[in-house]
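Hey everyone, long-time lurker, first post.

I ran two proteins through the pipeline my lab uses and got sequence/structure pairs for each. Pasting them in order. The first:
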Amino acid sequence: MDVLRWGYRLGRDPRITTHLGLVARALGATGFLLTGDRDEDLFDNLQSVCQRFGGELETTHVPGLKHLKTHVQNGGVAVHLTMYGESYHDAIEKIPRDKDILIVVGGAKVPAEVFKTCQFNVAVGNQPHSEVAALALFMDAWQGHRSTLREFPNA
């Protein structure tokens, strides 16, 4: 499972995006991807956490829509966390577990093409709140509410 942070803005989003990366790592993602501005310092910080606390997290910058479309064309499943989707309680049962999952988390305004390309537009609640909370709740539910029981190699 990879997490794709859509539309990262260097001057505005470093703290919240770092928290998304930390949650992704802690709850079982293998990759944390950014679209938008490049920020090697953010990736360095996440890698530093892996070195100090164990585990691995692949971090990379990707061309947003191209990466998303390629993922889907190659048989992967894209799950967009949005306030305007189907309840995650209902959607999680419909998402195939035998395919590579890409979780898309918006930052800047997410283009309509993302909603159209993702097979699942999933809401974690129907009120404005933190994308970090949405990611944590979704990832924990995806893993049967056992995500915090992970053990980290080299911890």
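...and the second, right after it:
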Amino acid sequence: MAVALAAVAAATEGRLHGDGGFVVERLVHPVEARRADDLIFLMEARHAAMLADSPVRAAVLPEGAKPPEGALDAWVEVEAPRYALAGLVALFEPGPHAPPGVHPTADVAEDAVLGPGVSLGPFVSVGPGAEIGAGGRILSHASVGAGARIGPDCLIHA
């Protein structure tokens, strides 16, 4: 999956250093980095020295971490690494594909509100007054209770 570092910065709410157009293909653990287009994520600044021997050209680093001179073409500096990791996982692992539409076995209350592009899988139940935002994906056998409000682009599964 090709992702520009500018998109990585946006997903992690980080500060971009270097070329935002640099494209990375996959998010990997630092010891699994094998290619220049791998993206590694460091949780602690003290590990930044390991970048000197890595083939990667881009990384996500905690605030204050300084990559060795010339080790990276670009990097994203993040204030809260654990929070940033959640953004990275969502960016690189968007979850299962679920085509928009309502499966014939789904049970949807008459007054439920479904946003555009919503996907309801087999045997999904959506209660009275529930709202599911645009692009929401509710996978098989999951339930959305009465009056629940689900935001856009959510993924819910049983």
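Reply from user beta_strand_b:
Welcome! Quick read of the second one: The chain has a mean pLDDT of 95. The chain has two domains: 3-92, 101-156.
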